[in-house]
Each structure stands twice: as C-alpha cells, then as structure tokens.
Amino acid sequence: MAVANKSTQTSANTKTANTSDAAINEQIDQLREDIAGISKLLAKRGSEDVIRFQDRTKANLQAVAEKATDVLGEANKEVGRAEARMMLEIRKKPLAAVGIAAGVGLLIGLMSRK
After folding, report:
1. Per-residue pLDDT for the chain (114 aa), expressed as one digit of tens each?
2. What is the domain extent for residue 81?
3. How far is it, in rounded angstroms, from Cα 73 to Cα 80?
4. How many domains, the chain?
5. DSSP string over 30-44
6. Residue 97, class by beta-carbon neighbours within 10 Å (0-12 exposed, 13-18 middle, 19+ buried)?
C-alpha cells in the first residue's frame, strides 16, 4: 500500500508540475504580449512627441524669420537715413569731407604697413 501511495503522490506531483509549467508558460506569453503592446504604445507616443516638437520648431523658426526680416528692414531704413544725412553734410561742407576722407585713407594706409 505504501508503494501505491508513493506512485499516486508522484503522479500528482507530476500533474501539479505540468500544470505549474503550463501556467508559467501562459503568464510568460501574456507578459510578452503586454511588453509588445507597451512597446507599440511607446513608439506611437514617441512619434507623436516628435511631431509636436517639429511643429513647435517650425512655428518658432517662422517667428524668428519674420522678426529677422523686420529687423533687416529697419536696419536698411536706418542705413538709408544715415546715407542721406552724410550726403547732406558733404554737400554743405565739401572741403571738410574731402579732408576727412584723405585723413581716413592716410590712417588706413599707415595701419596696413605695420
């Protein structure tokens, strides 16, 4: 009778082990599916974040380009006004303008020698 009990216990242990292995394998498969789903979700979210970042960057670049265009326009206007003032002063005092130009030319010539 003791032999029959041992045989029954061994058979029960084997069934329990097989059931445990099957349950573990099912859990492993479920974990793989969950990880695959999480990976897909993260990839989708990451691509959405990249798209949002690209959109913000494009908007910022457009704003910077518009601001640079405005600043360039203002600089061109200021250069035009300075040129007009300079031409007016040259017409008022032509000899002084020629003297200043000669002096600046002499200084540049002396500095370039050294």
Report:
1. 445 555 555 555 566 666 788 888 889 889 899 888 888 888 888 788 888 888 899 999 999 999 999 999 999 999 999 999 999 998 999 999 899 999 999 999 999 986
2. 2-113
3. 11
4. 1
5. HHHHHHHHHHHHHHH
6. middle
